[in-house]
Amino acid sequence: MATAAAGASLLPGTAAAAGDTLPAQVRRTLDQVLAAGAPSAVCGVIRGGRAYVAGAAGKGKRTPDGRTVFQLGSIGKTLTATALARAVTAGETRLDAPLTLPARFPIPRKGPRRITLADLATHSSGLPRLPEGLLDGANPYDPYAHYTLDDLAEGLGRTTLATEPGTEYAYSNLGFGLLGQALAFDRVDEMLRHRVAAPLGLTDTTTTLRPDMLLRKAVGHLEGTPVPDWHDHVLSGAGTSIYSTADDMLRFLAAQLRPRRSPLRDAIELTQRPRFTAGRDLRLGLAWHLSPLPSGRTMTWHNGSTGGFGTYAAFSRESGVAVVMMTNNVSQVPPGGERPMDTFTYGLLRDLDAAA
User: What pLDDT does residue 20 have?
Assistant: First the structure.
């Protein structure tokens, strides 16, 4: 019921040598993701300094590869966090600097301390997950498209913090959207391109589809039905409208595994440094989530979704392995449950880490 394509790319050599079990492991994970409802999926792995990419699709569907374009979703928050870290390491700002926006944007407060940039980057600002008024009159299939800076200013005036800044973890798209605006007001997309994507060679990581990317783009699905892409001109620092490919994400993950080889070495190191503890098994760097693996090593990870796409990226610097999964389908998740693709992708990283 499925077709597959595989290949190696990006880094010298190939991870799939004779007798190697990696292709079978990746294929098994792809089959699990397809069985969970994805029309197609592509998986990229780094192991031993080498990269391997494979795609799979249901019957009659186009099989993706490392250059197929997907919407990235909240993994894009790690790009915004990298831009923040670049500004910090360049001495342009500080992590403990208060959130500052133009005067017409009121910053909510609770308690004696103001929201800082570090609070935004660790989901500990107390801000709600979504901005006030976002869904009023929104297209449910493209909920951010209508939202303007005027809407943001008006909504912030009606926003209250659930907790004092810096005290509790509460995931917030609004927080990361504000972080992007704080770093580059109304020029967030340009900032991400010039400060992060371009230096790392992420040529297909952008909010604006070039004609060649449009030809390579997967069609997003919601519960198996084709849906439009998301568009966001205000809160894109949250990753709501960023496109990317498995090849680009493997380049990004290669830089995470070996920052010393990257032009953004200091910034990458800063994003991975634990800054906030959200629970016994969860710590936060800047955007990155850090969780223990059964091996005792640390998994650094982020997942994401838009209206029709799901993604997951994870790595362990200690074992030198990384995995990215990209699909063109979003399924409903039961309260308190996990997306099947997250479970399967985590399982692949866990097994690769255990064998390292």
Answer: 82
